[in-house]
Design a protein that fits this description.
UDP-N-acetylmuramoyl-L-alanine:D-glutamate ligase, 9-stranded mixed beta sheet, 4-stranded mixed beta sheet
Length: 283
């Protein structure tokens, strides 16, 4: 079983709104790859909550891990797309996903082994942070997407989330930021990655470089892939599709070159579509 935990939000674009949040997006793409997934999150008791349940059901996402909050609102994010086609996020706080409770999750997973997928944003509140920390202790494998969203994703939260992780995903800019935070001299990305691997006992570090593809560093050495040409519609969710494909590859012990090519292919496809969870081809 794979458990994705964290925020569920409505991405509010100028002309539409779309259900999202990295844990939901990753779960959708893992399900599309044929894996067993449970989403752990929290919604409000408002009209957006009802719509959230309907949309998750339509996406095929299991609802057993979706908690309901009696007072906090369902998450919302205002999204604007810049001239560089990169999304910019205004994340509303507080939200129901700030208060994910641990007891229902432990009751749901029981003694079954599970892999945990988590990020930084959902740890901005002590309540959900405590739940994620507890799940990390119990998980048989840990997959962490740094996914910086200032001002909520601080250095302390990131460095608390890194140790003993099976796979950490960052983009190139985030890697440089982590290097500065960790006091690693210089701007050589490969050196920064090597230092982080050693310092935090990370098994594999994945670095995305936008149109230049992505690379992996870990016990099997270094592997890179140049990516696929894409006419970008919007990049929301492309990293989540990439991450899901990598998780699938690692859990199924596929060669790194195959993992990376497949992840880039799926990420590029989503970047060429509107929204984070389009119907996925079977590649």
């Amino acid at each position: 079983m794979i458990v994705t935990v964290g925020e569920v939000v409505w991405d509010i674009f100028p002309s539409r709104r779309v259900l999202g949040g990295a844990p939901v997006n990753v779960a959708y793409h893992l399900l599309a790859l044929g894996l067993e997934v449970t989403v752990v999150t929290r919604i409000g008791s408002d009209s957006l909550a009802e719509e959230t349940v309907r949309c998750l059901g339509a996406m095929g996402v299991p609802l057993a891990g979706v908690q309901s909050d009696p007072s906090l609102p369902t998450g919302r994010v205002t999204v604007t797309i810049g001239r560089d086609n990169e999304p910019h996020f205004d994340i509303v706080a507080p939200a129901a996903w700030d208060a994910i409770a641990i007891e229902p999750v432990l009751a749901m997973v029981g003694d079954s082994p599970f892999a945990l997928v988590y990020g930084t944003l959902a740890q901005r509140d002590p309540r959900s942070r405590a739940t994620i920390r507890r799940l990390r202790q119990q998980a048989s494998a840990r997959f962490y997407d740094v996914n910086l969203r200032p001002p909520f994703t601080t250095a302390d939260l990131v460095f608390d989330s890194l140790p003993d992780t099976d796979l950490v995903k960052v983009n190139g800019a985030e890697l440089l930021c982590l290097g500065q935070w960790a006091g690693i001299a210089g701007s050589d990305k490969k050196n920064i990655a090597q230092q982080l691997l050693k310092q935090y006992n990370i098994t594999v570090l994945a670095v995305t470089e936008g149109p230049e593809g992505a690379w992996l560093l870990g016990p099997e050495g270094f592997c890179e892939h140049a990516g696929f040409p894409t006419t970008v519609a919007d990049t929301v969710g492309a990293g989540d599709a990439f991450f899901a494909a990598l998780i699938d590859g690692i859990l199924n012990h596929r060669p790194w070159s195959e993992c990376l090519a497949r992840a880039n292919q799926r990420g590029s496809y989503v970047a060429g579509q509107h929204g984070a969870t389009p119907p996925m081809p079977s590649f």
